[in-house]
Amino acid sequence: MIRLFLLFIALSQLAISSAHGKELKFAVVPKFYSVFFDQSKTGCIDAAAQIEGVECIYRGPEISSVRLQDQVINQLIDEGIDGIAVAVTQSKYLVENSLKRAKEAGIPIVTYDSDFDASIKEEPKNLRLAYIGTDNFELGKSLGEQLKKLRPNGGTLIMHSGRPDSPNLNLRLMGVRSALSGQKYDTPPGELLNGDFGWTEVREPFFNFDQLSQAVKQMESVMKGKPVKADSFIAVGGWAQNNDALYREMISPYQEKINNKEIVIIITDTSPEQLTMLKDGLAHVNVGQNPYEMGRQAILTLYKIVTKQKYEKVIYTPVTFCTPQNADTCDKRIGM
């Protein structure tokens, strides 16, 4: 009888140990593999290494495609993943397919970098247990405020984004417009600026669909002033600069225009390569996010959820403001 009791205790302790981090596999699923998202892989791996028995699986599509991302998530479910952190490419499609399946299987879901948007009828809190990443609306406002500092009397603007259906990017576009117009908009991405406080968008944003070569070509047309001309350029992501060699080749002929602020260039993200370009005077401002911390907090949050600890429902990771003058020191990140 005593032996049976001791065996029961041992098995109970083993179950508790397993529930508290033994052989737990958590996935971080980016929109696609890139300079930006691959930093979340490092944060994910570092966090998992600090918790015994926890493994980070970083897996995503090679290109930005909601169907490919959906396939990745379904594959992870089939493999018996214990929790998923996903950077949402398109809310409605994922919610109606792989994430619905994950929820039905009892797999905890958190979002990072990009949360669900208004295209879904259900309250986001019913679909995911936490959001980890940049406050995207506030990031957009920061981009707009940086432009106002450099052009206090207003001007003409072209913005650059990835996809027209991207939840986080539309919040950033709305944030820029709110900062420049002083208006509040009901839904992202807000409305095209038309003389608001001296600011006019000369066209709808360029959308590059996460194709880096296309992003460089689109930016080149802005630098040329053909077919449309503007004196300000804001990119709500780092696409053009994520192809270092192509960006440098494209923008070098326009160095004088940059130096004289004939066109002001403000770009999101601060990878080491981007900061080197900034030091070289190939942009005026870079506003950085912290994808490393997003990946790190994703794993820590999923672990707390699975082990039934208290956790934060929203974790906003910090942004940094970088100029050619402070490029060496502006982006000292937590954990890196």
Automatic annotation (TrEMBL):
<feature type="signal peptide">
    <location>
        <begin position="1"/>
        <end position="21"/>
    </location>
</feature>
<dbReference type="InterPro" id="IPR050555">
    <property type="entry name" value="Bact_Solute-Bind_Prot2"/>
</dbReference>
<dbReference type="InterPro" id="IPR028082">
    <property type="entry name" value="Peripla_BP_I"/>
</dbReference>
<protein>
    <submittedName>
        <fullName>Sugar-binding protein</fullName>
    </submittedName>
</protein>
<feature type="domain" description="Periplasmic binding protein">
    <location>
        <begin position="26"/>
        <end position="309"/>
    </location>
</feature>
<keyword id="KW-0732">Signal</keyword>
<dbReference type="Pfam" id="PF13407">
    <property type="entry name" value="Peripla_BP_4"/>
</dbReference>
<dbReference type="InterPro" id="IPR025997">
    <property type="entry name" value="SBP_2_dom"/>
</dbReference>
<comment type="similarity">
    <text>Belongs to the bacterial solute-binding protein 2 family.</text>
</comment>
